[in-house]
Design brief:
- The chain has nine helices and six strands.
- With 217 residues, it is an alpha/beta fold.
- Strands 3-2-1-4-5-6 form a six-stranded parallel beta sheet.
- The longest helix has 19 residues.
- The protein is globular and about 55 Å long.
- Bound molecules: 6-O-phosphono-beta-D-glucopyranose (BG6) and magnesium ion (MG).
- The site of 6-O-phosphono-beta-D-glucopyranose has 18 residues, from helix 3.
Length: 217
């Protein structure tokens, strides 16, 4: 087994796609006759597309047939894909490349551990795909965060023991998943929201190389 592995969530950690997910859900909610606020969108972070739609329909007190449900899931995703169509490297969150470069220069294996089924095309668009040795996303897992499945699968594919993995996450469900996997959890965002994280930084600009080097040693 290699010594250490680093696992990154995608949405909200590497790129700020939450705003595009929000716009697509907001559009669907409007079509269904109710308003969907940015505050409610917080509940959708780290949550699978299917689960998000279940929650959205509960919010709107709407019951759907399986066929309607599938149609709305497809519609939301098509709108989301239209929003991210022109995405490029300028949408990478601050200092993500510095952290990836530092890990690469230390020959540390890197994985993506995301709930999104659109992870691969997004990494391609922002030109970060080549940094990742392993990609585990919404297409590979059956259980959503806070279940640790996504991170355990990433660790296994990296050939690293879970206890030797470090996870970067912006969602509480993701921190809980990392903790359940017995990995080191690092919150990226609000420390109050991400309570339970082993460490928390507002964003990567607040995480210096000395901290990363301490993790590595
Ligand atoms: C997560 C996002 O990364 O992916 C969620 O935080 C999103 O908001 C989920 O619902 C699923 O994404 P996708 O791209 O498969 O609809
Ligand atoms: Mg996220």
């Amino acid at each position: 087994m290699k010594t250490m592995g680093f696992i990154f969530d995608l949405d909200g950690v590497i790129v700020d796609t939450a705003k595009y997910h929000y716009l697509a859900w907001k559009k669907l909610a409007a079509e269904l006759g109710f308003e969907f606020t940015e505050e409610q969108n917080e509940l959708f972070k780290g949550v699978s597309r299917k689960r998000c739609l279940e929650i959205l329909l509960q919010m709107g007190h709407i019951t759907a047939t399986q066929e309607q449900f599938n149609t709305w899931m497809t519609e939301k995703n098509e709108d989301y894909l239209a929003y991210i169509e022109d995405m490029d490297a300028s949408e990478i969150l601050p200092d993500v490349p510095r952290v990836l470069d530092l890990l690469k220069s230390n020959h540390v294996p890197i994985a993506l551990g995301s709930a999104s089924k659109n992870a691969r095309p997004i990494l391609e668009k922002v030109q970060l795909l080549s940094y990742f040795d392993v990609i585990v996303d919404g297409n590979n897992v059956t259980k959503a965060k806070p279940d640790p499945e996504v991170f355990l699968l990433a660790a296994k594919s990296l050939g690293v023991a879970p206890a030797s993995c470090v996870v970067f996450e912006d969602a509480l469900a993701g921190i809980e998943a990392a903790n359940a996997a017995k990995m080191t959890s690092i919150g990226i965002g609000d420390a109050v929201v991400l309570h339970g994280a082993d460490f928390c930084f507002r964003d990567f600009t607040q995480m210096d190389n000395a901290f990363l080097n301490r993790l590595l040693n």
